[in-house]
Inverse folding.
């Protein structure tokens, strides 16, 4: 992995999906993914020499998302429009139920603290506890508890929505 193009090829889709799960918006996901790769390009030598490049790129993306979510938090109004549009477009009962479940999941995630959103997304991407600890700047031994609490909070948010 010696060139920016190679790094971009390897990580772009992963980072875009990670960022999209956190933001829920295509435009925001594109912008934050672009911001991540601009930083990577500006610091390519340190990225290439990092002992864990995957954690490095996820950490940059997570920080970009965290900053974005903090800014957005001041202006965010919970709008149910997307869920209603998806439900109206559902042609079968099964699709309707799936859309409702996704809507509840998205609402539950939006109500979590940004750190909880990030750890759940990192876990979904299959990152190791070591990588998650490095990205979140916590001890590896704390990741299990942080992740468990985030799952509990998400489950509580979803059950309160019902």
């Amino acid at each position: 992995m010696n060139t920016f193009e190679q790094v971009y090829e390897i990580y772009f889709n992963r980072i875009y999906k990670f960022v999209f799960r956190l933001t829920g918006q295509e435009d925001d996901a594109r912008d934050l993914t672009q911001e991540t790769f601009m930083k990577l390009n500006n610091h390519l030598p340190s990225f290439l020499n990092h002992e864990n490049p995957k954690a490095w790129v996820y950490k940059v993306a997570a920080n970009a998302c965290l900053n974005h979510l903090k800014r957005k938090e001041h202006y965010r109004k919970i709008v149910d429009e997307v869920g209603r549009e998806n439900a109206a477009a559902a042609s079968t009962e099964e699709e309707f139920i799936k859309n409702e479940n996704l809507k509840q999941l998205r609402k539950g995630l939006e109500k979590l603290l940004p750190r909880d959103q990030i750890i759940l997304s990192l876990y979904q991407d299959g990152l190791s506890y070591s990588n998650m600890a490095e990205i979140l700047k916590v001890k590896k031994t704390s990741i299990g508890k942080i992740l468990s609490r985030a799952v509990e909070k998400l489950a509580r948010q979803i059950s309160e929505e019902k």
